[in-house]
């Protein structure tokens, strides 16, 4: 019997091969020998997707043109192709799959992984073979071997494929049709496109835009509060009156009415102390980790995912694309055994560790596809950890701290509330006294210890005090800009910004918009389309982004509930209670409706105001040939004079290096730049050089020493 194992990418295939008794590398696959498999066995791989949906003009010649007359473009049957750079590997894979008796799908254990594998198998006409599925949570040798010994029937995962494929098809339909629709409509208004629109990216962009609008339109208002420094027998503390006033006069009037004076005598009305407990934070899901890493180290969610993926491939952490906060007793067992070495690594000792599983962390019923991100069974050696880059090291340590927290006792503190009566005005004071540090011994310097505790003097009911009154002026503050970390959380909890109760329920079911695996890449797409920028960890919508938001404001594309409803139906396809046909039919109806109504829902007046802003925001300089404006067109810088035949343009990327905007500006104003680092030769070596506009008005390297 011949078995062919299909991995998602070369590094994964290598990890599988390393877990086998013998393996030999061939061109595009490994030959392996191991008692787990009888007969000839190979491991081959994709480069992620080897097969993708074709572009519109492949269906019909006329679909090449971006015009409203062509819309909607709805293929009767979706066609797929292998892109040129992946043909060689696809041919290797296809040949192996066709010759196999049994195929083992060993791509990432998630929906997208299933789609990657099934698309390749289907395009290779190997669907009729016996198909098995490898489902593992870690790339450690023991886990990989256990996974191969316990392969699961392929058909159990077929609906994952259907769900992911439906997602892919509907993304194609929305992307191709609606991007063209808005690009054409906005071009009519004098704007350069293209304006890409997506099922998840556009509602996400609108969320950022709305927050930005709130901030920009915010008018700070002054308010007045009153504090009291209260002198008791055993010491001083500060109390606060509960009400806020909008004018100084109102506050003064109240103080006068109550006859409050300098050194006002008063009495302690109540003093209450309650013991409170706080359990350690739950284990990390991917989005939770992405938010925390962004907060502590300013890394983007995509950078974090890349680093966690590398730690997974290095067999140090478990499977990263998980939305689960729990583990099973199996993981708890080995983590407890490794506790001493984790403590040694962190330089921390947990006093009285809790070695019995607690439901907050360990609950097999809550682990469906994957468990939370935790260290793998094998404790990495110091020289292995030394090879990690700084972000990977920080993330490993963060996961370790979170995991060890599971064994630490609760943080226990006394919360004391004092109410002081000053001539009938009640002032409240809350103080906290730590009794047992518990899991908080694991907090690092990067964790914000929000409420620094105030220790209060010991006071008794009815005790006489004197107080000095201190009025204070403050100002209301606008909401904060999103960071990429808070944005990931907002996407996950998108329900909170939804008005209708029904929408909220859908969002609760679907856990917001996007999936754990895709949120980071959605933010990257928005950046790549120049819709948003991140500056000092603050997410801002660009003028181009604002234009799109204005254009779609009155449609369902501006609502998270819009995409959330779809996500919830997609889940139904996964559990078998929904079908791809129904979903695509609804999608088609939505697209047709948008095409019919988009022009009327565009608020022309505000768009026209935005046109000027966008044009000037995108302008980088003057064309050296015709003198018209050169602007940022997304993929390159082009001349507005193209309508009159000017073909001048500057690429965004030269020899592997994305040109800084300042370099493009100086090319246009001085015909040359200063030296730029980071160009790459074909052999991968980097070099530095200046750029210039040559005699033929082309951008070329200038190795001139001057
Ligand atoms: Zn020009």
Question: Which helices and strands occur, and which strands form pairs?
Answer:
Blueprint: E1 3-7, H1 10-18, E2 22-26, E3 29-33, E4 41-45, E5 51-53, H2 56-59, E6 80-82, H3 87-99, E7 102-106, H4 111-123, E8 130-133, H5 141-149, E9 152-153, H6 158-188, H7 201-216, E10 222-232, E11 235-241, H8 248-257, E12 264-278, H9 286-297, H10 301-313, H11 329-337, H12 339-346, H13 382-386, H14 390-405, E13 411-422, E14 425-436, E15 464-475, H15 484-492, H16 501-510, H17 519-528, E16 532-535, E17 538-541, H18 543-552, H19 560-575, H20 580-601, H21 604-618, E18 619-622, E19 629-632, E20 636-639, E21 649-651, E22 653-654, E23 657-658, H22 661-670, E24 676-680, E25 686-693, E26 699-702
Helix pairs in contact: 4-6, 6-19, 6-20, 9-10, 9-15, 10-14, 12-14, 16-19, 18-21
Structure description:
Its EC number is 5.6.2.1. It catalyses: ATP-independent breakage of single-stranded DNA, followed by passage and rejoining. Keywords: DNA-binding, Isomerase, Magnesium, Metal-binding, Topoisomerase. Belongs to the type IA topoisomerase family. Pfam families: Topoisom_bac, Toprim, Toprim_Crpt. 37% of the residues are buried. This protein starts with a strand and ends with a strand. The protein contains 22 helices and 26 strands. The protein folds into 5 domains: 3-150, 3-Layer(aba) Sandwich (Rossmann fold); 166-217 and 480-606, Topoisomerase I, domain 2 (Orthogonal Bundle), CATH 1.10.460; 222-279 and 413-475, Topoisomerase I, domain 3 (Distorted Sandwich); 286-405, Topoisomerase I, domain 4 (Orthogonal Bundle); 623-702, no CATH class. The longest helix is centred in the N-terminal third of the chain and has 31 residues, at 158-188. The protein is 38% helix and 21% strand. Strands 2-3-4-1-7-8-9 form a 7-stranded mixed beta sheet, with helices on both faces. Strands 10-11-14-13-12-15 form a 6-stranded antiparallel beta barrel. The model has no long low-confidence stretch (mean pLDDT 90). It is α+β, with helices and mostly antiparallel strands and 706 residues long. Zinc ion is lined by residues 623, 625-626, 628, 639, 641, 646, 648.
């Amino acid at each position: 019997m011949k078995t062919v194992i299909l991995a998602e990418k070369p590094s994964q295939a290598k990890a599988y091969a390393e877990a086998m008794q013998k393996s030999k590398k061939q061109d595009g696959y490994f030959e392996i020998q191991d008692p787990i498999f009888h007969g000839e066995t190979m491991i081959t791989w994709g480069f992620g997707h080897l097969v993708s949906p074709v572009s519109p003009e492949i269906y019909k010649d006329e679909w090449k043109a971006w015009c409203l007359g062509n819309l909607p473009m709805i293929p009767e049957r979706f066609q797929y192709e292998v892109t040129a750079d992946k043909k060689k590997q696809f041919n290797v894979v296809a040949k192996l799959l066709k010759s196999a008796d049994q195929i083992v799908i060993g791509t990432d254990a998630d929906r997208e992984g299933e789609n990657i594998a099934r698309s390749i198998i289907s395009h290779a006409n190997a669907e009729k073979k016996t198909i098995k599925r490898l489902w593992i949570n870690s790339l450690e040798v023991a886990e990989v071997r256990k996974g191969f010994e316990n392969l699961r029937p392929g058909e159990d995962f077929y609906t994952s494929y259907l769900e992911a494929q439906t997602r892919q098809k509907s993304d194609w339909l929305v992307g191709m049709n609606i991007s063209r629709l808005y690009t054409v409509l906005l071009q009519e208004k004098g704007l350069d496109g293209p304006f890409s629109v997506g099922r998840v990216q556009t509602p996400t962009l609108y969320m950022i835009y709305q927050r930005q609008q709130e901030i920009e339109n915010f008018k700070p208002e002054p308010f007045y509060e009153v504090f009291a420094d209260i002198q008791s027998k055993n010491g001083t503390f500060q109390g606060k009156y509960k009400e806020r006033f909008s004018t100084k006069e109102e506050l003064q009037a109240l103080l006068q009415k109550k006859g409050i004076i300098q050194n006002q005598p008063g009495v302690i009305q109540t003093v209450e102390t309650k013991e409170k407990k706080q359990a350690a934070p739950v284990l990390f899901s991917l989005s939770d980790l992405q938010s925390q890493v962004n907060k502590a180290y300013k890394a983007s969610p995509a950078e974090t995912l890349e680093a966690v993926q590398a730690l997974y491939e290095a067999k140090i952490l478990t499977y990263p694309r998980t939305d689960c906060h729990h583990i099973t007793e199996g993981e708890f067992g080995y983590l407890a055994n490794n506790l001493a070495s984790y403590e040694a690594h962190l330089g921390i000792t947990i006093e009285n560790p809790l070695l019995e599983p607690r439901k907050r962390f360990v609950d097999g019923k809550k682990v469906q596809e994957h468990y939370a991100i935790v260290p793998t069974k094998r404790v990495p050696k110091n020289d292995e950890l030394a090879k990690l880059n700084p972000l990977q090291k920080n993330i490993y340590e963060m996961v370790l701290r979170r995991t060890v927290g599971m064994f630490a006792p609760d943080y226990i503190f006394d919360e004391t509330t004092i109410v002081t009566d000053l001539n009938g005005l009640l002032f409240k004071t809350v103080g906290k006294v730590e009794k047992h540090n518990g899991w908080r011994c694991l907090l690092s310097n990067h964790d914000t210890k929000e409420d620094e505790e105030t220790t209060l003097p010991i006071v008794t009911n009815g005790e006489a005090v004197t107080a000095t009154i201190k009025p204070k002026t403050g100002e209301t503050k606008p909401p904060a800009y999103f960071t990429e970390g808070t944005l990931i959380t907002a996407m996950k909890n998108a329900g909170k910004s939804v008005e209708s109760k029904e929408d909220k329920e859908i969002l609760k079911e679907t856990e917001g918009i996007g999936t754990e695996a895709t949120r980071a890449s959605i933010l990257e797409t928005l950046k790549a389309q120049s819709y948003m920028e991140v500056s000092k960890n603050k997410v801002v919508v660009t003028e181009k982004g604002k234009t799109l938001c204005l254009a779609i404001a009155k449609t369902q594309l501006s609502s998270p509930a819009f995409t959330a409803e779809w996500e919830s139906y997609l889940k139904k396809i996964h559990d078998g209670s929904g079908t791809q046909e129904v979903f695509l039919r609804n999608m088609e109806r939505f697209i047709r409706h948008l095409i019919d109504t988009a022009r009327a829902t565009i608020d022309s007046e505000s768009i026209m105001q935005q046109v000027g802003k966008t044009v000037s925001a995108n302008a980088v300089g003057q064309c050296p040939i015709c003198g018209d404006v050169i602007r940022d067109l997304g993929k390159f810088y082009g001349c507005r004079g193209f309508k009159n035949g000017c073909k001048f343009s500057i690429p965004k990327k030269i020899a592997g290096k994305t040109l800084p905007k300042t370099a493009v500006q100086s090319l246009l104003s001085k015909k040359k730049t200063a030296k730029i680092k980071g160009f790459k030769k074909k052999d991968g070596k980097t070099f530095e050089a200046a750029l210039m506009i040559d005699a033929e008005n082309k951008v070329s390297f200038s190795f001139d020493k001057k």
